[in-house]
Specification:
The chain is mostly beta strands. The protein contains one helix and seven strands; from the N terminus they run H-E-E-E-E-E-E-E. The N and C termini lie far apart (about 75 Å).
Length: about 130
């Protein structure tokens, strides 16, 4: 015995109906995150955060910016991954993007958290 729900599904299939596109948007995969605090003289120590992201087309730019507000622990830097879609039509080709953030700082950060992924990486100190 068919219910109303299965009857609707069956009639939609017969009419050639398609599923609506996902509202989640694009899939961007990031990996190989690394944070290095270079305290070698001369000059102010420099924190560098690097990683690799993959987008479904070359029509995207990715950058890291400091999150506002920062968290309650001043030794953990929180960065936000910002993805910008470029105008135009782009070929469907998975594209690698090297992502880098550099900051001169006297703060000896212990960790960096990247949002919205929630990935936390330990800072490697080079002295």
């Amino acid at each position: 015995m068919a219910t109303k729900r299965t009857a609707k599904k069956a009639s939609a299939k017969k009419a050639g109906a398609k599923k609506a596109p996902s509202k989640k948007g694009i899939t961007i995969r990031c990996q190989n995150w690394r944070a290095v605090l270079d305290t070698m003289p001369p000059g102010t120590p420099t924190l560098t955060v690097t990683g690799v992201c993959y987008t479904p087309t070359p029509g995207y730019r990715i950058k890291l910016v400091p999150a506002i507000p920062q968290g309650i622990n001043p030794l953990i830097l929180i960065l936000k991954k910002v993805v910008a879609k470029l105008p135009g039509v782009w070929p469907q080709k998975v594209t690698k993007h090297d992502v880098r953030y550099t900051k001169k700082t006297k703060t000896k950060y212990t960790n960096v958290t990247i949002l919205p992924d929630g990935k936390t990486i330990k800072v490697q100190i080079v002295s």
